[in-house]
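Protein 1 of 2
SEQ + STRUCT:
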Amino acid sequence: MDLENQKRVKEFAEEFGPENLVVLLGAAEGEAAGLAAETVTAGDPTFAGPLTGVQLGLKVYHVCEPEIKAEFDEAVYDEQISMMEMVLDIDDIVSEMSAIRDEYTKY
């Protein structure tokens, strides 16, 4: 997650309260999604951005996880995401995201 997005997430958490935020990710690999998820839950693991040492514990999901996919209008999901979903390792992404949530999410 780039430094600007870290800054935005931190500002939103301060403004609205971390318990009121949900972060949706769309990374193409489980490892990349996991790194971004760890950043918004446990703090920036690279120690380079505004979330270094900041444990927000936010709810974080990947857009292809079944519980999030179910929230979309099916036609919109098909148009915007389904083509990419065919080439993603969804099981790896779900596993990575679940592990991060289980360990670090507070809300």
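Protein 2 of 2
SEQ + STRUCT:
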Amino acid sequence: MAHKAFSETEKEEFDGSESALTVDSVARKGLGRKPSQGLLSGWKGVVLGTGLGIAIALGGTRFLFRPTATPTVTQQSPQQPVMSVTVAPVQTNSVARTLNVTGTVAARDLIPVLPQTTGLQIKQILVEEGDVVKLGQVIAVLDNSVLQAQINEARADIESNQAVVGQRQAALAQARATLAEAQRNLQRYQELANAGAISRQELDTRATTAATAREAVRVAQANISSASADVRSSRASLAQLQTQLGQTLVRAPASGLIAEATAKVGDVANGTQRLFSIIENGALELQAQVPATQLPQVNINAPAVVTYDADPRVRLQGRVRDILPLVNPESRIATVRINLPPTSLLRSGMFARAAITTATMSGVTVPAKAVLPQPDGSAMVFVLSGADIVKAQTVQTGGVPNGGRVEITSGLKPGDSVVVAGAGYLKDGDRVRVVQQPNETS
């Protein structure tokens, strides 16, 4: 009966426990059977008792550690900020309206270099295409051996003519002495004739002698003038030859960039052969093609932004310099010349684009770094929603970036805050930590 009392006590103590009921059932079955052939005696009884003890122990443990029947509450931890970002407000600023055109880069002033003296062979070429030269710099040398011989001859002519002048000056002195003597004789014979000491015929003879002496002096003076003229002519020839000798050094007529170098050693220079072409001061222009219907929108001195598709580094600020008066009658296209600042990124003949400012008006703008170009050609920004959530917003841009800002024609309104630094690493709905106040600009 001790076994039966133990089972009832355990049943009350572990009521509701699945393990306890199982153990109690086993106990009841064991106690309800009649002992037969020593079922509970010997080692079998020991085994059964040990098994019951283990079962009771396991049941008690499960009961003690069984969770209470309370509703399960799942708590979600707050989403952590993915990264720190800076934001800037959407503002209203002056925005340029532009006309997009294309054209060819050309030299603003292309200066041809022609030989100043002809018939001479090119001896040396001192520059190459692309070299930068200064005004007066020697860029080629012509053979001057012929001129050197002519100069020596001219100097000899000068010396010879100077000797003739000396000879004729001596003849003039002699003629003057003869004239003086003849004049003295004439005066003496005049006095004798007045006194009746000589005949009239003798007086006339002395007068003729004096006249002949005067003519000899005049001729001698004329000969000196002629010889002096020969000297001056020889000197002029020498000066001309010396000038030509200086012209055998071909010099740059202006500072700039060597655009073409057609001269070759051994060529004979002539007055129509272009030896070089120089872009004065390296200045370039864009010869933009503008449809005649849009020409009224373009004004002289209007700013223009010039870009080159093959090189994103090219973003030059130019100005409209001139509008050619003629319009192509077939294409109805006019040429607008846009001055370009000095640059080594463009070359004459390249194809480039220009955005010519046609008007300025008020528009909605954001920092250019906030706008994210998309693969499909659209643009997107991240707008700060609330205090720390960002929303992806598709926008349309317009105008030319000015001062680091770009116009937004749709998708935003003044007062919105957009992500600037860190925008490229976000996705729609991300939580962020703002490290810059929305009213600050970047």
